[in-house]
Design a protein that fits this description.
The protein is about 20% helix and about 40% strand. It has 11 helices and 20 strands.
């Protein structure tokens, strides 16, 4: 089986004079275990391996890919990408990056995970299931307990930049608990990420899922009012996920961003600092270079409430007369690069979550939101989403609330941020601490 770098080299050798050719190669081994009721519900293992090729000639771009190829098949893929380029239109934004010098991040790969036995992964999923039901008297079963991991390797080479590669390991666990009392059922979800199994605090994950479900039992609709709101990190991340689109230079250039014409202007309170950092090792999406080989970096998007930058790949940077921020991202070797966040997060502040609750007495703690991506408009920023949570009384969480609707705009919410907690957590590639918003419309009964 040919090495990934050798496969990329085969593509580069197949380039004709005047062409730019890039090869992106990846191989990934994934395992996932789902457990419920003390039994393994499913165990899946999959391996993928392939190469995607971009050919650019006179501003025309062609793309083609191949799965598990030999060097000869990679050369054939270059020929198909070349044929596709002939059919495309000229675009001055098409071009490959020539940057080099990406510093390695050896902490991304853990041999312990790559060598871990399947039996240990199955055991962890089963123990997650048991631990959740033992964590709270009202939680007697789980909807699902799951463990998953991936061992990956990436390589990129082109006619204008040397080959580079890196390896990474990623693992996660998740629990969805079912809390029951007097015929009522509430769910609670918790999630943990790590580089190897020993980094996963799965007992805390199980306990958190049980607590989040049990504390919603007996929930009632609140009266409609404008109130202070404290966003749980998971709820805050849901809103940041919507913000990540408008902060892409691709959305800006296509006129699909609420931030298109406000670069340099104030879009949030001074408490808001939003950063994308591809080299943050504690962030799950850290990498030495992006998916077209540009070194990753730290980009401050919003600084003390002021919009400071957008996320770029090479294409948007060329069109916008800017520099790539190292945010080229792909859905795998089958797709050409777009613009994607790496580790996008609100910079944590000094207050604890308890201190933020004390500053929102009489308000609402939002534990979970639903329908954010369908209920939020990335162009106007308007949103109306469902939520569950708890009343805040005396600086503590009080009676549970359900069937609420939270309505505002993304910019009004950013401007209303009065405090950002110290408890930064990542849920996938996006992270946030607890966030206090001065006032939001809560619609209930």
């Amino acid at each position: 089986m040919a090495d990934l770098v050798d496969l990329c080299a085969a593509a580069v050798r197949a380039a004709r004079d005047g062409e730019q050719v890039e090869a992106y190669a990846e191989e990934t081994r994934r395992t996932q275990v789902r457990a419920r009721g003390g039994e393994v519900e499913s165990l899946t293992s999959a391996e993928t391996r392939g190469v995607g090729v971009r050919v650019i000639d006179d501003g025309r771009l062609g793309y083609a890919y191949t799965a598990d190829p030999s060097p000869e098949e990679v050369e054939e893929t270059v020929a198909r990408a070349r044929a596709n380029a002939v059919l495309s239109t000229t675009d001055e934004g098409n071009g490959l990056p020539s940057s080099d010098g990406a510093r390695a991040i050896p902490e991304l790969y853990r041999a312990a995970l790559a060598e871990a036995a399947v039996e240990r992964k199955v055991s962890l999923a089963l123990e997650l299931d048991k631990a959740a039901t033992r964590s709270h008297e009202d939680v007697r079963k789980v909807e699902q307990a799951a463990y998953g991991d991936a061992v990956s390797r990436i390589a990129v080479a082109s006619t204008v930049a040397p080959a580079r590669e890196y390896a990474r390991t990623d693992c996660w666990c998740a629990v969805s608990s079912l809390a029951e009392r007097d015929g009522e059922t509430q769910t609670g979800y918790a999630f943990r990420l790590g580089r190897e199994i020993d980094e996963l605090d799965w007992l805390a994950c199980a306990a958190e899922a049980a607590e989040r479900g049990a504390r919603l039992l007996g929930a009632k609709k609140p009266p409609t009012a404008r109130l202070p709101v404290v966003l749980d990190p998971a709820a805050a991340v849901a809103f940041l996920g919507v913000l990540s689109g408008p902060l892409s230079a691709d959305a800006v250039q296509k006129g699909r961003s609420l931030f298109a014409d406000v670069l340099g202007e104030v879009v949030g309170s001074e408490a808001v600092a939003l950063v994308d950092d591809g080299r943050l090792v504690d962030g799950p999406a850290a990498a030495p270079f992006d998916d077209e080989g540009v070194p990753t970096s730290r980009t401050t998007l919003i600084e003390r409430g002021r919009l400071a930058a957008f996320l770029h790949n090479t294409y948007t940077a060329r069109r916008g007369q800017a520099l790539s921020t190292g945010n080229a991202g792909r859905g795998g070797y089958r797709t050409p690069p777009g613009v994607s966040p790496t580790n996008l997060f609100l910079v944590p502040g000094r207050p604890s979550s308890t201190e933020l609750l004390e500053g929102a007495d009489g308000g609402v703690y939002i534990q979970e939101v639903s329908g954010v991506h369908s209920g939020a408009n990335p162009i106007s920023g308007e949103f109306s989403v469902g939520a569950t949570g708890l009343r805040i009384a005396g600086g503590e969480l009080a009676e549970p609330l359900r069937e609420m609707t939270v309505a505002s705009t993304l910019t009004d919410m950013l401007r209303g941020v009065e405090g950002v907690g110290s408890d930064l957590r990542f849920f996938g590639s996006i992270g946030s601490p607890t966030v206090l918003v001065r006032e939001m419309m809560i619609a209930g009964a």
